[in-house]
Structure prediction request, 113 residues.
Amino acid sequence: MKTILLIALLAFAIPTAYAGGNAGAGADKAKPCAACHGADFNTPTSADIPLLAGQHADYLARALTDYKSGERKNAVMNGQTAKLSAQDIQDLAAHIHGLKGKLKVIPLHRLVQ
Ligand code: HEC
Prediction:
């Protein structure tokens, strides 16, 4: 019984532990992003800038990693990510994921079954 409970608890712990990001550190690192995405990542300053508040952390980390490597091409975001470390990316992803906004994402419990 205890084992089952432990497995159930671990199953809940894994999605949040996945990113390994520190949202508090991410908030600091996100200051330069506010000029375009809005400090809340929910009020972009132009129509071509995406809403990000509440987006899944793994999606955000993948996007930032791909911009940094050049796998994903966008002159603005390639520049914004050039100096980010892997830890910066995880921290930013954790921070942005924790924000509330207008973006509708499928809840994690419906993705991981
Ligand atoms: C000068 C304006 C500007 C700044 C500053 C900026 N961004 Fe962006 N961001 C954009 C634009 C424009 C796009 C859309 C790029 C594209 O079409 O691929 C974008 C796209 C993104 C995406 C991809 C979203 C998706 O749905 O795939 C992420 C994640 C992101 N930005 C995070 C950040 C973070 C984190 C920072 C700060 C470190 C930042 N941005 C700074 C303009 C900006």
